[in-house]
Amino acid sequence: MNNYRTIYEAVGGYDGIGRIVGLFYPKVQQHPLLGPLFPEDIIPVMEKQQLFLTQFFGGPTLYSDAYGHPMMRARHLPFPITPERAEAWLSCMREALAETGMPEELQDIVIERLSGPAHHFVNTTNERET
């Protein structure tokens, strides 16, 4: 990681983010806690996630340029995000990162960076509450 200025650069830029997203979302769709929260047509979600992660990890502001300020907590409020779902999301991301073959140190950095927001989006302790 010392040879890179940003996580974005370290994971391979826009294409690297795209690879992560491509490995991640099939896991999300198959996960019993996460799959029901996502639309059947996952492609638009994947496209937005690639733009968001590009910006989040220090790359160009593609998400903000296209959609305005991310306001990610507000965008997730309509969905029941439990602590278990936050951990499930991170688990799917860990699996996807491992499949990329990137160094474990970098995987750990990515997960650490995503853990705060994942838990920040928690808005209920019970699946039926919102």
Q: How would you sum up this structure, described in words?
A:
- The chain has 130 residues and is mostly helical.
- Helices cover 63% and strands 0% of the residues.
- The protein contains 7 helices and no strands.
- The mean pLDDT is 93.
- This is Globin.
- Pfam families: Bac_globin.
- Keywords: Heme, Iron, Metal-binding, Transport.
- Belongs to the truncated hemoglobin family. Group II subfamily.
Give a short account of the largest sheet: none
Q: What letter string, H or E per element, gives the SSE order?
A: HHHHHHH
Annotation, overall tally of beta strands: 0
Q: Which descriptor suits the 3D outline? A: globular
Tell me the span between the first and last alpha carbons: 39 Å
Keywords: Heme, Iron, Metal-binding, Transport
InterPro entries: GlbO/GLB3-like (IPR044203), Globin-like_sf (IPR009050), Globin/Proto (IPR012292), Hemoglobin_trunc (IPR001486)
Pfam families: Bac_globin
Protein name: Globin
